[in-house]
C-alpha cells in the first residue's frame, strides 16, 4: 500500500500533518491510512470502471477509509477521459457569460427571444415595471427588449396618422439606438476585458440529449459561432445553442491537473508544496 511511495511522497505526507505509527504505517490527521500515488491511481480506476460514479461520489467513498493528497483533483483528472461517463452521465454544459451581447449596428439587427415564464403567482405582478417608460430613454423595458410596446387590453387603435408614420418610426429608432449605445457603454466600463470564446473553431464537442440514451452524443467539429450563443457544427445543418453543448475533456488529463500526488519527484524534506521543489 505504501511501499511504492518515494521519499518525496513520504516527506510530503509529513508536511501535511501525517504521522508514522508504531507498525510503520503513515496515517493522516484523522487516523486514516495514506495511499501512495500508484496505489491511489489503481484504486480510483478500479472503482470507477465498475460503477462510473462522478468524482464527488467517489471521493466520499474513498475518504471513508483512506486519504491521499489532492484527492478531489486527482479523481477528477483520472475520470475525465472516460467515454462512458461523457456519453451516459449528466454533465454541465457551456455557461454563457452575462453581458456579452454584441452591440448592434442598427435597430432590430439581432432579435433575442426569452422563453422564461414568471410563474402563475407573479405573472402580472411587475407588468407596470415592464411597461413604464424610462425618463432617460423614453422607452419601457419591454420596448428595449422586444422593440414594440407591451400588449394591453383591446381598445380602438390610436396609432399615428399615415402621413407621419415615417417620421415617428425614425424618431423611435433614434431613441432605441441611443439607448443601446448608452447601455453598451456601461457594460464596457464595468467589464473592459475582451470576450474569450467558450470553444475554439475546430474542436470537438458533445450535444446534450436528455430525451434518450445515451444522454450525450458526439456532435462533431465546430465550424463557426453564429452570433455569440449559437454553435455551427459540421454534422448539423442547424445551429446548436451553446447551453445544449458540452466540452470534450482533454485526452491527456495531466494537462489540467493540479500539483498533487501525480508523478511526484524525489525532493528533499524542505519542500512545502507538491510540484514546487525547493531552490
Automatic annotation (TrEMBL):
Bias (Basic residues): 254-268
Transmembrane segments: none
Pfam families in UniProt: Integrase_H2C2
Ranges where the record places region Disordered: 248-279
Residue stretches making up the Integrase zinc-binding domain: 43-90
InterPro entries according to UniProt: Integrase_H2C2, Retrovirus_Pol_polyprotein
Name of the protein: Gypsy retrotransposon integrase-like protein 1
Organism encoding this protein: Merluccius polli
